[in-house]
Specification:
The structure holds two protein chains of two kinds.
Chain A (H helix, E strand, L loop, with lengths): L3 H14 L5 H21 L1 H28 L2 E2 L7 E2 L3 H8 L1 H32 L4 H10 L1 H4 L2 H11 L7 H7 L15 H26 L3 H9 L4 H28 L4 H6 L11 H11 L3 H31 L1
Antiparallel strand pairs in A: 1-2
Helix pairs in contact in A: 3-15, 4-15, 5-10, 5-12, 10-12, 12-15, 14-15
Chain B lengths: L20 H30 L18 H8 L2 H32 L5 H11 L4 H13 L13 H4 L6 H12 L3 H9 L4 H12 L1 H17 L2 H6 L8 H10 L5 H21 L1 H10 L5
Helix pairs in contact in B: 1-13, 2-13, 3-7, 3-10, 7-10, 10-14, 12-13
Chain lengths: 327, 292
């Protein structure tokens, strides 16, 4: 209050003195000032009070670590010896590192394959299970369970299924149709596909729910019109259903693919990046660099690079979406 | 031509007439296949956990030799301690997350203030910074909190606090609170209700459906955490149940059955939460999840 008081006095002074030239202006500034004061005391303060817990947690556990990560990425981190500033050397090292390059390739394949596969299976599940019947609701609930189970749990059970001997669970199953035995995650040729398969299995039901929501929004009369025109089921799906779902599918595909770039837990619990680095992805590489090789600077540079890629992709997707919506 | 409306309950046009038994048969068969494919693996966890000495080559949907021995041995491997860690983290972080989200959403949805747009942008930015991206510096920050210089390494609080605020929950709650008509608030103000009473007695009770949504999503997100508890742990006794599974499996003295008993204990809480709040979960996916 004391800080406001002299200024207020001053204000009244100027109004008194400058009544000839700026009298009108003074009358105008008066309400503006009062509004500002009220904002500072009540209307601004109380909202920020309510926002304070979130702001504090985000500051300490998101933004400070982010800033710290960027700082670390420019240093050679030597615990107890003092860090040395190395500029962009860590970035250069990572971008020339054979293992990181392989890992980035694996990440792209895994994110892309998993996203597409989950969407495709999710689409078929949605077509199969669309409807109001109680039994369908039950089946949908059951099929959805992999989504809620923790990735670590799913990893353990699939590891057992992937038991490489001919007596292994999955090998038994595929032998019924004359396939196998395969070695799944234990063979460098099949390990990445096996990890992808588990990812598809976990994420497909999630996509199913979203596609079901999209399907529910389609005007039934369009189907009837198509049926009257003599379109087959396949033609109806292709010409009516898919175009109606396209906006949902496009956005979900891109967002899921971006999220897929950060894949860690699935790979870590299933294979730990092995065998022989055949499933190593960007984040497992970063983890190994940081916590097993104790190269915090290098690993931070890896994290920052991942962040930049996801940032650029997310912003461009949002921008593209806005532009489309604006049209 | 009479196209009855029930035929287009679905995009495929699955017939619901009793005489169309071929179509119905195909649908039943495929549905059964889907259930086996997506639920079967989880059922195998159940049977394996209760099976005396399950061999990884002889997994089945029903235990051959039911017993509780796996849980007993798992108990000797401190599985209940891990479960307790997980449950305390889930409970604590969820309560914190709910409170923080509701408070923040109240400000964002019911108030107009300077810096509102910036606040929204900042919260959006946090969603670009998941644990994976900031894992390394986060582990340093947790080991030495800024200003207060307290280490949370090896504590449950070290996992709980970073999970205490989640942009997704704040956004879902904000969207919901925006829908509450302003007249209610004004009427309460006329009656002389203060800011806190307004929040606690008018707005909060109306938010119950949204609370269900963010609770089930929050629980799922917390239970799914893997990297965070891994980097916060100072030694294996700090592990959550999900993180401990890998350590259990890597131990040659521990058999498959014990790992599956642990996996089952990690699975059951998520099943309970999902099955009891299923409607909230599905509503959350279809209304809010597209934003994530």
């Amino acid at each position: 209050m004391t800080a406001v008081h002299p200024a207020e006095k001053n204000h009244w002074d100027t109004q008194d003195v400058g009544s000839t030239a700026s009298g009108g202006g003074a009358v105008e500034t008066h309400p503006v000032r009062r509004r500002r004061r009220r904002r500072l005391t009540g209307a601004t303060f109380i909202p920020w009070l309510f926002l304070f817990p979130a702001a504090l947690i985000f500051l300490v556990f998101k933004f400070i670590p982010m800033a710290e990560g960027i700082r670390l990425s420019l240093f050679e981190v030597r615990p107890f010896l003092g860090d040395i500033f190395v500029g962009f050397k860590n970035y250069a090292t990572i971008l020339q590192d054979e293992k990181f390059l392989t890992a980035s390739w694996h990440t792209l394949v895994l994110a892309g394959g998993q996203t597409l596969g989950a969407m495709l299976i999710g689409f078929f599940l949605a077509l199969l299970l669309e409807g109001h019947a109680k039994s369908l609701w039950f089946v949908r609930s059951a099929v959805f369970l992999p989504v809620v189970a923790a990735t670590a749990v799913i990893g353990e059970i699939w590891r057992l299924f992937f038991y490489p001997a001919p007596e292994g669970f999955l090998n038994e199953v595929i032998s019924w149709v004359g396939l196998g035995p395969w070695e799944y995650i234990h063979n460098t040729d099949t390990s990445l596909v096996s990890v992808m398969f588990v990812g598809i299995w976990k994420h497909a039901p999630y996509d199913m729910v979203l596609i079901l929501a999209g399907l529910a929004g389609i005007d039934r009369q369009q189907y009837e019109a198509a049926a009257i025109d003599g379109a087959s089921t396949l033609q109806r799906i292709w010409n009516v259903t898919l175009p109606a779902l396209r906006p949902v599918i496009t956005i979900l595909l891109t967002l899921a693919a971006i999220r897929g770039l950060r894949v860690f837990t699935e790979v870590y619990v299933l294979t730990g990046g092995g065998p022989a680095g055949s499933t190593d992805v960007w984040m497992t590489r970063v983890y190994t660099t940081a916590f097993e090789q104790s190269e915090a600077g290098l690993a931070s540079a890896g994290s920052v690079l991942l962040f930049l890629v996801t940032l650029v992709l997310t912003v461009s997707v949002q921008w593209y979406r806005r532009r489309k919506e604006a049209r | 031509m009479s196209v009855n409306s029930s035929r287009f309950d679905s995009a495929i046009g699955w017939s619901t007439r009793p005489d169309a038994w071929v179509g119905r048969g195909i649908r039943v068969l495929l549905s059964a296949l889907a259930v086996i494919l997506f639920c079967g693996p989880l059922l195998v966890i159940f049977s394996g956990a209760f099976d005396h000495n399950p061999d990884p080559t002889q997994l089945s949907v029903f235990p051959d030799n039911p017993s509780l021995i796996n849980f007993k041995v798992a108990g000797e491997n401190k599985i209940w301690d891990y479960l307790a860690n997980s449950l305390i983290i889930a409970g604590g972080a969820l309560l914190l997350q709910l409170a923080v989200s509701v408070f923040a959403a109240y400000a964002l949805a019911r108030k107009k203030f300077r810096g509102q747009a910036i606040a929204l942008l900042v919260i959006l930015a946090t969603m670009m910074l998941p644990e994976e991206v900031i894992a390394i510096p986060l582990s340093l920050v947790i080991g030495d909190l800024p200003l207060v210089h307290v280490s949370l390494k090896g504590t449950l609080l070290g996992v709980i606090l970073p999970l205490g605020a989640w942009g997704f929950s704040i956004f879902v709650m904000t969207e919901f609170m925006k829908e509450i008509p302003a007249e209610l608030e004004e009427a309460a103000k006329v009656d002389g209700a203060g800011e806190l009473r307004l929040f606690a007695q008018i707005i909060l009770p109306l938010c119950k459906p949204a609370l269900g949504v963010i609770a089930v999503f929050g629980f799922n997100m917390i239970w799914e955490q893997y990297l965070l508890p891994l980097i916060v742990a100072a030694d294996p006794s700090d592990y959550t149940l999900t993180v401990a599974l890998l350590a259990l499996r890597s131990d040659d003295m521990v058999g498959t059955g014990i790992v599956l008993a642990g996996a089952l204990l990690a699975l059951v809480p998520s099943l309970i939460v999902y099955l009891s709040l299923q409607k909230s979960f599905l509503r959350g996916i279809t209304t809010g999840a597209i934003k994530g």
